[in-house]
Specification:
By secondary structure, this protein is α+β, with helices and mostly antiparallel strands. The protein has ten helices and 14 strands. It has a seven-stranded antiparallel sheet with strand order 2-6-7-1-5-4-3. The longest helix is centred in the middle third of the chain and has 35 residues. The protein starts with a strand and ends with a helix. The structure holds zinc ion.
Protein backbone atom coordinates (compact mmCIF):
# COMPACT_ATOMS: atom_id res chain seq x y z
CA UNK A 1 0.00 0.00 0.00
CA UNK A 2 1.17 3.52 -0.61
CA UNK A 3 0.04 6.86 0.78
CA UNK A 4 -0.99 9.69 -1.48
CA UNK A 5 -2.24 13.18 -0.64
CA UNK A 6 -4.73 15.34 -2.48
CA UNK A 7 -4.88 19.05 -1.76
CA UNK A 8 -7.85 21.21 -2.69
CA UNK A 9 -8.71 24.82 -2.01
CA UNK A 10 -11.81 25.26 0.12
CA UNK A 11 -14.52 27.60 -1.13
CA UNK A 12 -15.13 29.21 2.22
CA UNK A 13 -17.69 31.82 3.21
CA UNK A 14 -16.82 34.53 5.76
CA UNK A 15 -18.75 32.76 8.51
CA UNK A 16 -16.82 29.54 8.00
CA UNK A 17 -13.54 31.43 7.78
CA UNK A 18 -14.26 32.99 11.17
CA UNK A 19 -14.76 29.49 12.62
CA UNK A 20 -11.59 28.20 10.96
CA UNK A 21 -9.58 31.10 12.33
CA UNK A 22 -11.02 30.52 15.78
CA UNK A 23 -10.28 26.78 15.70
CA UNK A 24 -6.72 27.16 14.39
CA UNK A 25 -6.25 29.90 17.00
CA UNK A 26 -7.38 27.44 19.69
CA UNK A 27 -4.76 24.94 18.49
CA UNK A 28 -2.10 27.64 18.66
CA UNK A 29 -3.25 28.51 22.17
CA UNK A 30 -3.03 24.85 23.22
CA UNK A 31 0.47 24.56 21.76
CA UNK A 32 1.68 27.64 23.64
CA UNK A 33 -0.09 26.76 26.89
CA UNK A 34 1.43 23.27 26.86
CA UNK A 35 4.94 24.68 26.35
CA UNK A 36 4.39 27.12 29.23
CA UNK A 37 3.17 24.28 31.44
CA UNK A 38 6.15 22.09 30.49
CA UNK A 39 8.51 24.94 31.39
CA UNK A 40 6.76 25.61 34.68
CA UNK A 41 7.04 21.95 35.66
CA UNK A 42 10.66 21.68 34.59
CA UNK A 43 11.53 24.70 36.75
CA UNK A 44 9.70 23.00 39.63
CA UNK A 45 12.00 20.00 39.13
CA UNK A 46 9.46 17.74 37.47
CA UNK A 47 10.26 15.65 34.44
CA UNK A 48 8.77 15.93 30.96
CA UNK A 49 5.05 15.26 30.66
CA UNK A 50 4.30 13.05 27.65
CA UNK A 51 1.36 13.27 25.24
CA UNK A 52 -1.14 11.47 27.48
CA UNK A 53 -0.42 13.88 30.34
CA UNK A 54 -0.74 16.89 28.03
CA UNK A 55 -4.14 15.57 26.89
CA UNK A 56 -5.25 15.60 30.53
CA UNK A 57 -4.21 19.25 30.77
CA UNK A 58 -6.29 19.88 27.66
CA UNK A 59 -9.34 18.34 29.32
CA UNK A 60 -8.82 20.55 32.36
CA UNK A 61 -8.50 23.66 30.20
CA UNK A 62 -11.64 22.78 28.31
CA UNK A 63 -13.54 22.54 31.58
CA UNK A 64 -12.02 25.57 33.33
CA UNK A 65 -14.43 28.54 33.15
CA UNK A 66 -11.78 31.01 31.93
CA UNK A 67 -10.72 28.78 29.00
CA UNK A 68 -14.05 27.06 28.33
CA UNK A 69 -14.05 28.54 24.78
CA UNK A 70 -11.51 25.84 23.93
CA UNK A 71 -14.36 23.31 24.08
CA UNK A 72 -15.99 24.95 21.06
CA UNK A 73 -13.14 23.75 18.83
CA UNK A 74 -13.13 20.13 17.61
CA UNK A 75 -11.17 17.98 20.06
CA UNK A 76 -9.08 15.92 17.66
CA UNK A 77 -7.14 18.77 16.03
CA UNK A 78 -6.33 20.05 19.56
CA UNK A 79 -5.01 16.61 20.53
CA UNK A 80 -3.09 16.34 17.27
CA UNK A 81 -1.45 19.68 18.08
CA UNK A 82 -0.20 18.20 21.35
CA UNK A 83 0.97 15.10 19.54
CA UNK A 84 3.02 17.26 17.21
CA UNK A 85 4.35 19.17 20.22
CA UNK A 86 5.46 15.93 21.82
CA UNK A 87 7.24 14.99 18.60
CA UNK A 88 8.98 18.39 18.67
CA UNK A 89 10.12 17.70 22.24
CA UNK A 90 11.37 14.23 21.28
CA UNK A 91 13.43 15.79 18.47
CA UNK A 92 14.82 18.25 20.99
CA UNK A 93 15.71 15.48 23.48
CA UNK A 94 17.40 13.50 20.69
CA UNK A 95 19.47 16.54 19.75
CA UNK A 96 17.81 16.83 16.36
CA UNK A 97 16.01 20.11 16.99
CA UNK A 98 15.81 23.17 19.20
CA UNK A 99 13.54 23.63 22.20
CA UNK A 100 9.94 23.95 20.94
CA UNK A 101 9.03 27.58 20.32
CA UNK A 102 5.88 29.51 21.08
CA UNK A 103 3.82 30.11 17.96
CA UNK A 104 2.90 33.67 17.06
CA UNK A 105 -0.23 34.79 15.27
CA UNK A 106 0.08 33.64 11.65
CA UNK A 107 1.89 30.45 12.66
CA UNK A 108 -1.24 28.47 13.49
CA UNK A 109 -0.91 24.73 13.16
CA UNK A 110 -3.33 23.12 10.71
CA UNK A 111 -6.49 21.37 11.83
CA UNK A 112 -5.70 17.70 11.53
CA UNK A 113 -8.50 15.15 11.67
CA UNK A 114 -6.71 11.83 12.17
CA UNK A 115 -9.68 9.49 11.93
CA UNK A 116 -11.61 9.01 8.66
CA UNK A 117 -14.73 8.26 10.72
CA UNK A 118 -14.79 11.93 11.73
CA UNK A 119 -15.11 13.36 8.25
CA UNK A 120 -16.86 12.60 5.00
CA UNK A 121 -16.11 13.20 1.37
CA UNK A 122 -18.84 13.83 -1.19
CA UNK A 123 -17.04 13.76 -4.53
CA UNK A 124 -20.21 14.18 -6.57
CA UNK A 125 -20.77 17.60 -5.05
CA UNK A 126 -17.06 18.40 -4.47
CA UNK A 127 -17.42 18.90 -0.74
CA UNK A 128 -16.02 17.59 2.51
CA UNK A 129 -17.71 17.38 5.91
CA UNK A 130 -15.68 18.19 8.99
CA UNK A 131 -16.61 18.13 12.71
CA UNK A 132 -18.09 21.44 13.95
CA UNK A 133 -17.70 22.92 10.47
CA UNK A 134 -20.24 20.94 8.47
CA UNK A 135 -20.08 20.60 4.71
CA UNK A 136 -17.39 22.72 3.03
CA UNK A 137 -17.26 23.08 -0.72
CA UNK A 138 -13.88 22.73 -2.38
CA UNK A 139 -12.27 23.23 -5.78
CA UNK A 140 -11.83 19.56 -6.46
CA UNK A 141 -9.53 19.40 -9.47
CA UNK A 142 -9.34 15.61 -9.65
CA UNK A 143 -11.00 12.47 -8.37
CA UNK A 144 -9.84 11.11 -5.02
CA UNK A 145 -8.87 7.47 -5.46
CA UNK A 146 -8.14 5.25 -2.47
CA UNK A 147 -9.17 4.77 1.12
CA UNK A 148 -9.33 7.97 3.20
CA UNK A 149 -6.87 8.14 6.07
CA UNK A 150 -6.88 11.69 7.44
CA UNK A 151 -7.70 15.28 6.58
CA UNK A 152 -5.84 18.49 7.38
CA UNK A 153 -7.08 22.05 6.94
CA UNK A 154 -4.45 24.78 6.58
CA UNK A 155 -4.38 28.45 5.69
CA UNK A 156 -2.08 29.94 3.11
CA UNK A 157 -2.11 33.59 2.11
CA UNK A 158 -5.61 34.04 3.39
CA UNK A 159 -6.95 31.00 1.55
CA UNK A 160 -7.98 27.71 3.10
CA UNK A 161 -6.97 24.29 1.84
CA UNK A 162 -7.85 20.76 2.75
CA UNK A 163 -5.34 17.98 2.30
CA UNK A 164 -6.77 14.46 2.12
CA UNK A 165 -4.47 11.51 2.60
CA UNK A 166 -5.52 8.21 1.09
CA UNK A 167 -4.07 4.75 0.97
CA UNK A 168 -3.86 3.15 -2.45
CA UNK A 169 -3.08 -0.47 -3.23
CA UNK A 170 0.12 -1.02 -5.17
CA UNK A 171 -1.10 -2.65 -8.31
CA UNK A 172 1.53 -4.73 -10.02
CA UNK A 173 1.63 -4.69 -13.79
CA UNK A 174 0.56 -7.94 -15.33
CA UNK A 175 3.16 -10.02 -17.13
CA UNK A 176 1.56 -9.96 -20.55
CA UNK A 177 1.22 -6.19 -20.59
CA UNK A 178 3.17 -4.42 -23.33
CA UNK A 179 3.62 -0.68 -23.89
CA UNK A 180 1.09 0.53 -26.46
CA UNK A 181 2.06 4.19 -26.62
CA UNK A 182 5.37 5.99 -27.15
CA UNK A 183 5.78 9.64 -26.17
CA UNK A 184 8.39 12.06 -27.49
CA UNK A 185 8.71 15.18 -25.33
CA UNK A 186 9.76 18.46 -26.89
CA UNK A 187 9.72 22.23 -26.58
CA UNK A 188 7.94 23.33 -29.77
CA UNK A 189 5.44 20.52 -29.21
CA UNK A 190 4.96 19.49 -25.61
CA UNK A 191 4.55 15.89 -26.72
CA UNK A 192 4.21 13.80 -29.86
CA UNK A 193 2.46 10.45 -29.53
CA UNK A 194 3.09 7.29 -31.49
CA UNK A 195 -0.62 7.17 -32.42
CA UNK A 196 0.00 10.30 -34.49
CA UNK A 197 -1.40 12.87 -32.09
CA UNK A 198 0.56 15.93 -31.01
CA UNK A 199 0.11 18.01 -27.86
CA UNK A 200 0.73 21.77 -28.03
CA UNK A 201 2.38 23.41 -25.00
CA UNK A 202 0.09 25.36 -22.71
CA UNK A 203 0.27 28.89 -24.13
CA UNK A 204 -1.40 30.49 -21.14
CA UNK A 205 1.82 29.98 -19.20
CA UNK A 206 3.81 32.23 -21.51
CA UNK A 207 1.40 35.08 -20.88
CA UNK A 208 1.57 34.43 -17.16
CA UNK A 209 5.36 34.55 -17.42
CA UNK A 210 5.15 38.18 -18.56
CA UNK A 211 2.86 39.04 -15.66
CA UNK A 212 5.25 37.24 -13.34
CA UNK A 213 8.19 39.35 -14.53
CA UNK A 214 6.09 42.45 -13.98
CA UNK A 215 5.15 41.39 -10.45
CA UNK A 216 8.75 40.52 -9.60
CA UNK A 217 9.89 43.94 -10.76
CA UNK A 218 7.17 45.56 -8.67
CA UNK A 219 8.48 43.80 -5.56
CA UNK A 220 12.08 44.88 -6.14
CA UNK A 221 11.05 48.52 -6.64
CA UNK A 222 9.23 48.78 -3.32
CA UNK A 223 10.97 49.86 -0.12
CA UNK A 224 11.94 46.91 2.09
CA UNK A 225 9.62 46.44 5.05
CA UNK A 226 6.99 48.75 3.59
CA UNK A 227 3.30 47.97 3.43
CA UNK A 228 3.35 48.35 -0.35
CA UNK A 229 6.12 45.79 -0.63
CA UNK A 230 4.12 43.32 1.41
CA UNK A 231 1.21 43.83 -0.95
CA UNK A 232 3.46 43.31 -3.97
CA UNK A 233 4.90 40.14 -2.43
CA UNK A 234 1.38 38.85 -1.83
CA UNK A 235 0.46 39.57 -5.44
CA UNK A 236 3.54 37.73 -6.64
CA UNK A 237 2.71 34.76 -4.42
CA UNK A 238 -0.85 34.59 -5.73
CA UNK A 239 0.44 34.70 -9.31
CA UNK A 240 2.86 31.85 -8.63
CA UNK A 241 0.06 29.82 -7.10
CA UNK A 242 -2.23 30.51 -10.07
CA UNK A 243 0.42 29.45 -12.59
CA UNK A 244 1.08 26.25 -10.68
CA UNK A 245 -2.65 25.51 -10.47
CA UNK A 246 -3.18 26.10 -14.20
CA UNK A 247 -0.26 23.91 -15.13
CA UNK A 248 -1.31 21.16 -12.76
CA UNK A 249 -4.86 21.18 -14.03
CA UNK A 250 -3.68 20.93 -17.61
CA UNK A 251 -1.18 18.16 -16.83
CA UNK A 252 -3.70 16.15 -14.84
CA UNK A 253 -6.24 16.18 -17.67
CA UNK A 254 -3.57 15.09 -20.13
CA UNK A 255 -2.03 12.33 -18.01
CA UNK A 256 -5.40 10.91 -16.93
CA UNK A 257 -6.50 10.66 -20.55
CA UNK A 258 -3.26 8.98 -21.62
CA UNK A 259 -3.18 6.53 -18.72
CA UNK A 260 -6.83 5.61 -19.32
CA UNK A 261 -6.12 4.79 -22.95
CA UNK A 262 -2.67 3.22 -22.46
CA UNK A 263 -1.78 1.70 -19.08
CA UNK A 264 1.74 0.90 -20.31
CA UNK A 265 3.60 3.80 -21.90
CA UNK A 266 7.16 4.21 -23.22
CA UNK A 267 8.79 7.57 -22.62
CA UNK A 268 12.26 9.09 -23.06
CA UNK A 269 14.60 9.09 -20.11
CA UNK A 270 15.24 12.83 -19.72
CA UNK A 271 17.25 14.33 -16.91
CA UNK A 272 15.24 17.46 -16.43
CA UNK A 273 17.38 18.72 -13.55
CA UNK A 274 20.57 18.36 -15.57
CA UNK A 275 19.06 20.17 -18.54
CA UNK A 276 17.90 23.13 -16.51
CA UNK A 277 21.10 23.47 -14.45
CA UNK A 278 23.74 23.15 -17.14
CA UNK A 279 23.17 26.32 -19.16
CA UNK A 280 25.52 28.54 -17.12
CA UNK A 281 28.41 26.21 -17.87
CA UNK A 282 31.54 25.84 -15.75
CA UNK A 283 34.65 27.99 -15.25
CA UNK A 284 36.55 25.85 -17.76
CA UNK A 285 33.76 25.73 -20.26
CA UNK A 286 31.51 28.76 -19.95
CA UNK A 287 28.06 28.09 -21.32
CA UNK A 288 27.47 28.81 -24.95
CA UNK A 289 24.43 30.88 -25.81
CA UNK A 290 23.47 30.96 -22.18
CA UNK A 291 20.51 33.24 -22.79
CA UNK A 292 18.86 31.00 -25.35
CA UNK A 293 19.52 27.94 -23.23
CA UNK A 294 18.10 29.64 -20.16
CA UNK A 295 14.97 30.36 -22.20
CA UNK A 296 14.79 26.76 -23.34
CA UNK A 297 15.29 25.50 -19.82
CA UNK A 298 12.59 27.74 -18.48
CA UNK A 299 10.29 26.44 -21.18
CA UNK A 300 11.12 22.91 -20.06
CA UNK A 301 10.34 23.72 -16.47
CA UNK A 302 7.17 25.55 -17.47
CA UNK A 303 5.86 22.56 -19.21
CA UNK A 304 6.69 20.40 -16.27
CA UNK A 305 8.16 17.33 -17.91
CA UNK A 306 9.15 15.92 -14.56
CA UNK A 307 5.66 16.47 -13.20
CA UNK A 308 4.18 14.96 -16.37
CA UNK A 309 6.32 11.87 -15.87
CA UNK A 310 5.47 11.63 -12.17
CA UNK A 311 1.73 11.82 -12.79
CA UNK A 312 1.91 9.38 -15.65
CA UNK A 313 3.82 6.91 -13.47
CA UNK A 314 1.36 6.77 -10.63
CA UNK A 315 -1.68 6.88 -12.88
CA UNK A 316 -0.40 4.02 -15.03
CA UNK A 317 0.53 2.10 -11.88
CA UNK A 318 -2.97 2.64 -10.45
CA UNK A 319 -4.37 1.09 -13.64
CA UNK A 320 -2.12 -1.93 -13.36
CA UNK A 321 0.39 -0.65 -15.90
CA UNK A 322 3.74 1.08 -15.91
CA UNK A 323 5.85 3.78 -17.50
CA UNK A 324 8.90 2.40 -19.31
CA UNK A 325 11.82 4.80 -19.68
CA UNK A 326 14.09 4.38 -22.69
CA UNK A 327 17.37 5.91 -23.81
CA UNK A 328 16.53 8.80 -26.15
CA UNK A 329 19.73 8.57 -28.23
CA UNK A 330 19.06 8.33 -31.99
CA UNK A 331 15.29 8.21 -31.61
CA UNK A 332 14.98 11.35 -33.73
CA UNK A 333 17.29 10.16 -36.56
CA UNK A 334 16.06 6.61 -36.93
CA UNK A 335 13.44 5.73 -39.50
CA UNK A 336 10.57 4.11 -37.64
CA UNK A 337 9.68 2.08 -40.73
CA UNK A 338 12.98 0.64 -41.97
CA UNK A 339 15.35 1.30 -39.05
CA UNK A 340 17.83 3.31 -41.11
CA UNK A 341 19.80 5.75 -38.94
CA UNK A 342 21.18 8.83 -40.66
CA UNK A 343 21.59 12.46 -39.61
CA UNK A 344 20.43 13.32 -43.13
CA UNK A 345 17.06 11.75 -42.37
CA UNK A 346 16.11 14.93 -40.63
CA UNK A 347 16.86 17.92 -42.79
CA UNK A 348 14.02 20.18 -41.67
CA UNK A 349 13.20 20.46 -37.97
CA UNK A 350 9.60 19.39 -38.26
CA UNK A 351 9.72 16.73 -40.99
CA UNK A 352 11.36 13.33 -40.96
CA UNK A 353 12.25 12.02 -44.43
CA UNK A 354 14.03 8.67 -44.65
CA UNK A 355 16.90 8.60 -47.16
CA UNK A 356 16.65 4.81 -47.49
CA UNK A 357 12.95 4.01 -47.84
CA UNK A 358 11.36 7.40 -48.43
CA UNK A 359 9.15 7.24 -45.31
CA UNK A 360 8.03 10.80 -44.43
CA UNK A 361 6.31 11.86 -41.23
CA UNK A 362 6.15 14.52 -38.53
CA UNK A 363 9.64 14.21 -37.00
CA UNK A 364 8.42 14.05 -33.41
CA UNK A 365 5.79 11.42 -34.19
CA UNK A 366 8.49 9.36 -35.93
CA UNK A 367 10.57 9.66 -32.75
CA UNK A 368 7.56 8.56 -30.69
CA UNK A 369 7.32 5.38 -32.84
CA UNK A 370 10.98 4.64 -32.07
CA UNK A 371 10.46 5.28 -28.37
CA UNK A 372 7.55 2.84 -28.37
CA UNK A 373 9.66 0.18 -30.14
CA UNK A 374 12.53 0.71 -27.69
CA UNK A 375 10.11 0.63 -24.76
CA UNK A 376 8.70 -2.71 -25.92
CA UNK A 377 12.25 -4.07 -26.18
CA UNK A 378 13.11 -2.84 -22.67
CA UNK A 379 9.86 -4.23 -21.31
CA UNK A 380 10.30 -7.65 -22.92
CA UNK A 381 13.87 -7.90 -21.59
CA UNK A 382 13.07 -6.87 -18.02
CA UNK A 383 14.63 -9.13 -15.41
CA UNK A 384 11.57 -10.96 -14.23
CA UNK A 385 9.63 -13.91 -15.50
CA UNK A 386 6.31 -13.28 -13.82
CA UNK A 387 6.30 -9.49 -13.70
CA UNK A 388 6.03 -9.54 -9.93
CA UNK A 389 9.12 -7.46 -9.22
CA UNK A 390 8.60 -4.76 -11.76
CA UNK A 391 6.54 -1.79 -10.75
CA UNK A 392 8.57 0.69 -12.75
CA UNK A 393 10.97 -0.33 -15.47
CA UNK A 394 14.48 1.12 -15.48
CA UNK A 395 16.16 2.44 -18.59
CA UNK A 396 18.47 0.30 -20.68
CA UNK A 397 21.57 -0.70 -18.76
CA UNK A 398 24.66 1.50 -18.86
CA UNK A 399 22.88 4.21 -20.75
CA UNK A 400 21.95 6.53 -17.93
CA UNK A 401 24.97 8.75 -18.59
CA UNK A 402 23.67 9.56 -22.05
CA UNK A 403 20.33 10.66 -20.70
CA UNK A 404 20.50 14.20 -22.05
CA UNK A 405 19.18 14.04 -25.57
CA UNK A 406 22.17 13.96 -27.91
CA UNK A 407 22.23 13.84 -31.63
CA UNK A 408 24.99 11.64 -33.07
CA UNK A 409 26.86 12.91 -36.13
CA UNK A 410 27.52 9.54 -37.73
CA UNK A 411 25.37 6.63 -38.67
CA UNK A 412 24.88 4.23 -35.77
CA UNK A 413 22.97 1.06 -35.03
CA UNK A 414 19.22 1.27 -34.81
CA UNK A 415 17.41 2.44 -31.72
CA UNK A 416 16.05 -0.98 -30.94
CA UNK A 417 19.60 -2.29 -30.64
CA UNK A 418 20.54 0.67 -28.44
CA UNK A 419 17.77 0.00 -26.05
CA UNK A 420 18.36 -3.69 -25.64
ZN1 LIG B 1 13.21 4.27 -43.77
Amino acid sequence: MSIKAYRFQLRTRPGVERLLRRFTGSCRWAWNAAIAEQRRRREAGEKFSPYAAMCRWLTEWRHAPETAWLAQAPIHPLQQTLRRLEAAYQRFFAGRGGYPKFKRRGQEPGLRFPDPKQFALDQGNARVKLPKLGWLRMRQSQAVVGELRNATVTAERGKWFVSLQVEQPDVLPSAELMPTLGIDLGVALFAALSDGRTVEPLDALKQQQRRLKHAQRAVSRKVKGSRNRRKAVDRLGRLHARIAAQRNDWLHKLTTELADQHPAIAIEELKVAAMSASAAGTADAPGQRVRQKAGLNRAILDQGWAEFRRQLEYKCAARGGAVVAVNPAYTSQTCSRCGCVDAGNRTAQAIFACLACGHAENADVNAAHNILAAGRAVWAARPTACGAEVSRASPARGRRAAAVKQEPTEATPAAAAEAR
